[in-house]
Amino acid sequence: MAADEASLVPAWLEPMLAKADGGRLRSGPEWAYEYKLDGYRAAMRIAPDGTTVLTSRNNIDFTAEFADLEGVLAPALDGRAAYLDGEVVVYGEDGRIDFERMQERRGRYVRHQSGPKGLEFKDVPVRFLAFDLLRLGDRSLLGLPYDERRGLLAELPMPDPYRVSVVRAVTFDELAADRRTPADFLAHAASAGYEGVVAKLRSSAYHPGQRPDSWLKHPLVRTQEVIVCGWRPGQHSFTGTLGGLLLGAHDPVTGDLVYIGDVGTGFSQATRAELRAQLEAMERRTHPFVTTPPREDTVRARWVEPRLVGEVVYRQFTRGGRVRHTAWRGLRHDKDPADVLAPRAVPQESAAPPPPAPSSAPSPTPSPEPAGQRITVQAGHRRLTLSNLDKVLYPADGFTKGEVINYYSRVAAVLLPHLAGRPITFIRYPNGVDGQKWFEKNVPKGAPAWLRTVRLAGTGGTIDYPLLDDLPGLVWAANMAALELHVPQWTVESGTRRPPDRLVFDLDPGPGTTIVDCCRVAERLHDVLVADGLTPYAKTSGSKGMQLYCGIRTDDPAAPSAYAKRLAQRLAKETPESVTAVMAKAQRTGRVFIDWSQNNPAKTTVAPYSLRGRDHPTASTPVTWDEVRACHHVTRLTFTADEVLDRIEEHGDLLAGVAKDSAPLP
Questions:
Q1: Which of 640, 637, 644, 649 is nearest to 210 (CA)?
Q2: Strand partners, 20
Q3: Is there a domain that residue 358 lies in?
Q4: Domain residues for 267?
Q5: Most buried of 295, 367, 416, 519 (most Cβ within 10 A)?
Q6: Of 212, 230, 261, which one is at a domain's C-terminal end?
Q7: What is the mean pLDDT of the chain?
Q8: What is the CA radius of gyration of the chain?
Q9: Its Enzyme Commission number (predicted)?
C-alpha cells in the first residue's frame, strides 16, 4: 500500500438522524434499544496507518479539540481503515454523562485556540461512545442490517475503554428473556441520567443524511414549578416585548432561593405582553437569590420580586442545578412561592422514569382525568375544557390530540403573528389522519362566545370566519382536531378586507419530482424576485412542496396573481422540461408546478408552522436560503413537530422579516 493511501481517512458522510417517536416507545422483536446520549455527535474516521479524524455532524473538524482521542483505536484495526459513528461525551463526578461540563470544556478550548494546538484538558477527559460502524477495511457497511453492523462493532477490541467504548444496545428479545420490557429499559435510562432511549429497527440499513422511521428517539421530559425572579427584554422578532424569564426555586435542604435557569420558548405573543406588564410592576434593583447567578445568564436581566409561580417543561436537571430544554407552560396562581422546591437528581437506584409532561395547553388545573375524559386548562386568560387528549390522530407515530394541542401551544409565539387579522380556514381530522377530513370556513356551532370572528361575503353567501389572534383561540382550534390552518394573503380590519400584503409562490412537485426539484426552482425565483426589488422567504409546505413569500404593498387585489403568473410562465418557457405554470395534471409529470393562483383573493395557503394531515406530524416550516441551496435529499427539508420546536429554539421565527421587508409590487 502506498504511503498516501495508508494515510487516507474514509470520506465524511452526513450522519443518519433519529426521528421523534411522538411519545410512543416502539415495542416488538424487530427493535433494539440504545441510550440517548447528551454529548457531541461525531464521526471517528481512521486511515489504515492509524491517522484519525473526528468530525462533527456538520462536518466540522473536532480532531484538535479532542486530541486525546486521536489514534486510540488504531491498535485494534490491524492496518484497516474504519468509520465509526458515535458521540463524544464528558462524565461528571457522579459518573453520569454531563453536558454542562462538556460545554465548560468547549468554552475553555475556544478561548485558548490561539494557544498551542492540540491543547489537552486532563482535568476534563472525553470519551468516544460508538453506536454504529459504517466502514471496516475496504468494505462499506451502509447497506448491512443494523444487527450485522452492531455485531461487527462489538467484535472490535477496545484498547483503551476509558477513551473509546461501544454504547450499550439491547434487543427486545434480550429484554424479554430477562422478564423485562422496553419500558423497563427506559426507566433505567431515566434513573441513570440519560436523555432518553433510541429505538432502532434491527433490519434497517444506514441512510446518510436521512431521518427515516427506522431510528426513533424517545426523550425524557419533566415538568417543574418555578418562581419568576427576573426577565429579559426580547430581541430580533421579539423586540419590544418579553424575551425570556429567569427562574428560581427553593433549595430542598436549606430552603434558600436559588437560581435554576431560564426559559425563552412556549409563550404566546399575548402572554409575553401580559407577563411583561405584570413584571414591570414588580421590579427590584437586585437579584433575589442567595448567591449571584452566572454573569453570562444575567446579561440584560431585569429583576423582580419573587411572587409569581409558573410551570415549565424540561428534559434535564444538571449537576450545576439548572433546568435544560425548557418551555413555558403558564402561571400557577394556585401555588405559593414558598412551596416551590428545586428539582433533585433522580437517585441512581430509582427504577421509575420521570412522568411525561401532560400533553395539553399550558398550566392544567386540576390534574388530568383518566384517558378519554375531560380536563380543564388555563390557556392565557381563558379556561378551556379539553377532551380525549389520549386520542391518537397520527397512528403511524402514536401522536395524540394532546400532543397536537401541546405543539400549537408551544409554537403560538411565532405562529400567531402570521395568523393575526387573517380569516382562518380549518381542515379538521376528528378521527385522525386516517379518517374523514373536512374543510371548515364558518365558525362551528358551540364555538366560545369570546372567539373573534369576521363576516365576509362568499360565493354562496356570507361566511363567519374565525380569527385566531391569541393562545386560547389556538388551543380551542387544536382541541377540535383542526390540524391544518390555511390563510389568505390579505388581512381584515374593522370587518373590511384590506389589499394583499403578501405574494406567494406555491411550488408543487409533480409525479417523478420532489422538494429537491422545488429547491432548484426556488433558487431561480429567488434571483428574479431580488432583481425586482423584493425580499423572498422560503418555507416547506409540510407535505411535498414548498412556498416562497414576499411582503408587498399594492392597492390592486388582482395585481399579485398577474405578477406571479408572468414569472411562472417565464420560468416555464425557459425550462419547459422541468417547470410548468399550467395546473393540468397531464402537464405536471416530471415538472414542478409553480402555482401562482394562490394569490387570488379567494384562495388560501397553509400557514407557517401549521401541522399537516399526513401520515406523520410534519409541519410547514420556515427554512433559510442556505438550507434550500444545500437540499439534495427529501429528508433534509422534512420536519416533524418536535423538530420544528427545536428549530424555533435555535432560530426564532425565520419568517419574522416578511412584513418588515415589504416593498411595492413590481
A1: 637
A2: 217
A3: no
A4: 222-339
A5: 519
A6: 212
A7: 87
A8: 27
A9: 6.5.1.1
